[in-house]
Amino acid sequence: MINSVFVEIRFWLLVVISFATPAAIYALLMRRASISRGAVFGLGVLLVLISAVDVYLLQALNALALHSLSRVDDVVFSSELTIALYAFPVLYGGVGVNVVSHLLIDHLLKAERLSDRQHDADAARRHRDAG
């Protein structure tokens, strides 16, 4: 049996991934005047991956907390409070999916406008050739 989940490397990895990585992403974005679409896509995917890793680590810590000697572990990782800990992965995953979705929608709108312009130019050419 372990004494506490809070001394486990997985707990500290959860803290770093949940707080330090998104803060670093935010700081990077605030320092840049412009950012490429590829970088935005990468950051969106990174947020979704952070979300997935957070959920995995929370599940692993929950399993460890059930077997630890510390009562605090049970309160934090094996009670109703655990639901609040899942707010961060939900937030990061939601923002990441929204960022990727924004890029896809923007790309589709541009492709649709291009198709409309090509269709209009073809129709004008056919009208001119027929007249």
Structure write-up:
It is a single chain. With 131 residues, this protein is an all-alpha fold. It has one domain (5-99). It is 83% helix and 0% strand. The chain is built from five helices and no strands. It has helices spanning 9-31, 37-66, 71-77, 81-85, 87-130. Helix 1 runs antiparallel to helix 2 and helix 2 (37-66) packs antiparallel against helix 5. The mean pLDDT is 89.
How does the major sheet shape up? none
Amount of beta strand? under 5%
What is the average of the pLDDT values? 89
Order of helices and strands: HHHHH
Provide a count of the helices: 5
Please give the domain count.
1
Overall 3D form: elongated
**Alpha-carbon distance between the termini?**
89 Å
Q: How large is the radius of gyration?
A: 24 Å
Q: Care to count the β-strands?
A: 0
Q: Helical residue percent?
A: over 70%
Topology readout:
Blueprint: H1 9-31, H2 37-66, H3 71-77, H4 81-85, H5 87-130
List the keywords.
elongated; mainly alpha
How would you sum up this structure in a few lines?
This protein has helices spanning 9-31, 37-66, 71-77, 81-85, 87-130. The chain is mainly alpha-helical.
